[in-house]
Fold these 4 entries.
Entry 1:
Amino acid sequence: MADTMIERRTFLTGIGAAAGAIAGLGDAGAQTTTDPWRDLRAQFQLPADLAYFNTGGLGSSPRAVSDRVKLGMDRQDISPSAAHNENDWARIRGKCAALLGPSCSAGEIAFVSTATEGINIILNGLPLKAGDEIITTTHEHVGLALPLTHKMKTAGVVVRAFEPDLRSRGGNVERIRALLTPRTRLIFVSHVTCTTGQVLPVADIGRLAAERRILFALDGAQSLAHFPIDIAGTGAHFYTASCHKWLMGPKRTGILYVRRDQLPQLASVVVGAYSEQTYSLADGTVTLRPDAQRFEYGTQNDALVYGIEAATDFVAALGLTKIWEHSRSLAERFRSTLQALKSVELVSAADAEARSAIVTFRIAGRDNREVAGALVGRRLRVRSLGEAGLNAVRASFHVCNTDAEVDRLIEGVRSISS
């Protein structure tokens, strides 16, 4: 317990006054003459001359997270133990559950290595058979697209995909409706697309799925800690996300949400120590855990799990709503400037409600790799985007970004496009 208290004090000291100023933004008497987001930038190990706009690819962990992981790794080597503290893990699952809204409980959360693992647990655990149909989009990350393709080849399921409608939120629901057949068993889409940053109308899709008694799953890799989430309001039965993107957690960490009433339906295809409540090889009996922990197995690197806790504490100290307001405002300023550049085309949702802190664009007559390379050469880290044939460039805005960095990105795009 003493070590935990020291770690928490160190954490609070680490993020310092910036977190308090950010959490108090907009409150009476909380005005400051300095920019707390600029001050917070020092909590990241990113080089001072690098503007990092690829959180949608991989988040940079703040020092509070990195230090917690390093401390945990050292502790494991000083006093090795294959076991982990069940009470600590339950507490940390609860903090992850809080990111999905007040209705989500710790018992509905399992720790996984990545969103990709969570996706495979869902697809391989459901009783899908040859001829069953799954609806998805043409803009899915390889982490979902490849497991779906593999499921087609190995189980004979049919995958039906629609092109996301960037002009109308309702248009996406109608495109899903048009693909429904009596064989549709699952709708599995990204909460936020990794291509254009479009926030899909998940609550409307969830209602449609409920009306047709179809299972609904979300790839939340681009939404966890990107903005506040009410998982109950989405109607999703399953949700999975990596913690190493917007949550800024340790690399190769993630969570899987399984709605409590779906636990009996989702089979555990990989089990091991910690999956079980009881078992006996001699008697041939096994009882799995009654909650989502049944999807966890084997010896774990618990330093990473404590790193997840440090990341959730970091987000909580800043306030997820404040984080969303900051990131979205940077994205909107960048977007509005690009709209005025004749040679630049925005490839993001037109409807403000469908826009995230990701802005995707292309420059007429230019290859996306060339454009991204030119920006990276200016120490502006963006991502080239060839998925779905878009030939575009993606910029993600998060807490490690400042107004001054956005100014640099704007000037970079303006110079390249002129």
Entry 2:
Amino acid sequence: MPDFEAAREHLLMNLRLAEGLDLAAYELRWGSRPTPPKVASLVEQGLLAQKGDVLCATAHGRLVLNAVIAALLN
């Protein structure tokens, strides 16, 4: 499914950037966003940081970014 793969790639690329992923922009483009419980769990584990509506991978989160992406999308 091309849209799923494109949305996954968007998530992956933006979480690699220092600017992070703007959740509102992601939702506007793809029609969905990671659920708050998934985000909260990854923040609690120290893999993501959230400031307002922007998610950023932490240094540890970047090391396991594929697993972070999988957790956000599943």
Entry 3:
Amino acid sequence: MGDIKNGFQIVGGRFETGAVEEEIPTVSCFREISEQRRSEFLNKGYNKKRPFFPHRIYYMPRAGSDEFKLAQRMCGESDPNKLWEIVLYATSPAIDEFPEELFFDDDLIWHQQQFGKTGHIAFAYLVTKGDSLYGLNYVSDLVQRQSRRRDYKTRIEKKFRGWHYLLLNSIINFSVENNIKKIYSPTSDLAMEHTDPKRTVQRELFERVYDRAVCKLFRAIREGKWWVIDVAKNKDAIITPEEK
């Protein structure tokens, strides 16, 4: 079965931990929320503005691109074994209307975090420190760079614009499974501080993802430049995926 960390097998292929590159067997396990569970999300307030789509979630014990640097700068962590990446993939029927090549367009999926799998929508970089979890950044290249594929732009926006809510739900599920008590999620101010200065920063986008979505989904308290989420007090907000 290959190496397993905290009960999760990561996607087959290669990944880097610090300066070490490891070969991983092409076996994977994941979390899934199927189309049949749409009503649960509608009951939680998901709607046309933040639509649900069926998805799979992979918890990956690895440092993503720039994650090691972000971990050091944002929360003073330099141990690569505490770095995680959550990757979110849309599944059928949400992706059926899109060609497979769309999800492997390097100009569109700039960070190239697909790991050979169709339907990649978003990812989050996370750091575990004791019984706390720190979010570093939450990204959807597909949605945020949709203008590069104007032939699919409207359909991408309509189908996947709720990506950050589903990613946040995945993060709190990861926290429950790993006995995390508090999640520290960056405010838009903090996330913007640690964004590549060469990029054109859209404050509205950062506020929507890092502030409004977090406070809409959870009971969060601001402490400095972090939103603090007590996991036990927010269990009623969780929709738990099935283990596969």
Entry 4:
Amino acid sequence: MNVLGAVFRELLRLFVDDGALALEILRSSCLPPFLPSSFQAFPSAAGAILIFGCLGVLLANVARTARRR
């Protein structure tokens, strides 16, 4: 059972190395459906918010990690 737990933890670390990054990406991915109806008329605007939000979160995480080292 110990081996199974270790394998599960390694798989989890493979996909979620930084918990804060995963939560921020999840939050920015859930944002576009809750935009005002004026933005929902333009699906490309919601897509742009999604892309730039995820890229912004990624760049902020890289900058934070670089400062730590």
